[in-house]
């Protein structure tokens, strides 16, 4: 770890972040398009609140992408949102195609491979020397193995983030690793309310 400024990378499990924001801060039945956040604002908020001086290297966002043939409107909105976020060279969006069940649309499409992609990248970048600190923003315990690996790396520190009141990733029976709890005021400060269904 650097003796001067920590190089920070934020890893966002986006569907998880979006879903918990809706559950914690929006009324029941709110439109599915609500509850989005700007990844760069999240990254800047998290890096700015650390006790050590920190430089935000990158926010890596992991999410599914609808099939344009099955969900043309949703796919176009997803593409426009991705393009908006990636106007900053500090934001990288990693998308994997949604998987559609045979009885779609009676059953919903689902994300596949997102957890694996996050875990692989956390470990890969932790070993590479690219970052001093990884912050995982997710409430999904399935990502704990990646946190455990980084926890043992002397060259890379690991922290987590969650919305206030949401489940947080931690080692059983402890408050480790350090968790950044973001409240409703934080959510409002980073909220993405742009309507991506509108063509520019």
Automatic annotation (TrEMBL):
<dbReference type="GO" id="GO:0004540">
    <property type="term" value="F:RNA nuclease activity"/>
</dbReference>
<feature type="domain" description="NYN">
    <location>
        <begin position="7"/>
        <end position="162"/>
    </location>
</feature>
<dbReference type="Pfam" id="PF01936">
    <property type="entry name" value="NYN"/>
</dbReference>
<protein>
    <submittedName>
        <fullName>Uncharacterized conserved protein, LabA/DUF88 family</fullName>
    </submittedName>
</protein>
<dbReference type="InterPro" id="IPR021139">
    <property type="entry name" value="NYN"/>
</dbReference>
């Amino acid at each position: 770890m650097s003796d001067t400024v920590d190089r920070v990378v934020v890893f966002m499990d986006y569907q998880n972040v979006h879903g918990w924001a809706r559950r914690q801060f929006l009324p029941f039945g709110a439109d599915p398009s609500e509850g989005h956040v700007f990844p760069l604002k999240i990254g800047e908020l998290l890096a700015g609140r650390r006790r050590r001086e920190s430089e935000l290297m990158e926010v890596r966002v992991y999410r599914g992408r609808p099939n344009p043939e099955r969900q043309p409107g949703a796919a176009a909105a997803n593409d426009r949102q991705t393009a908006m976020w990636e106007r900053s060279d500090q934001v990288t969006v990693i998308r994997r195609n949604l998987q559609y069940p045979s009885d779609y649309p009676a059953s919903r499409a689902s994300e596949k491979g997102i957890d694996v992609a996050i875990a692989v990248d956390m470990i890969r970048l932790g070993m590479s020397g690219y970052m001093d600190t990884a912050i995982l923003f997710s409430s999904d315990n399935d990502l704990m193995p990646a946190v455990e690996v980084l926890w043992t790396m002397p060259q890379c520190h690991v922290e987590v983030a969650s919305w206030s009141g949401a489940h947080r990733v931690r080692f059983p029976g402890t408050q480790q690793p350090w968790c950044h709890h973001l409240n409703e005021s934080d959510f409002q400060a980073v909220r993405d309310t742009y309507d991506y269904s509108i063509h520019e």
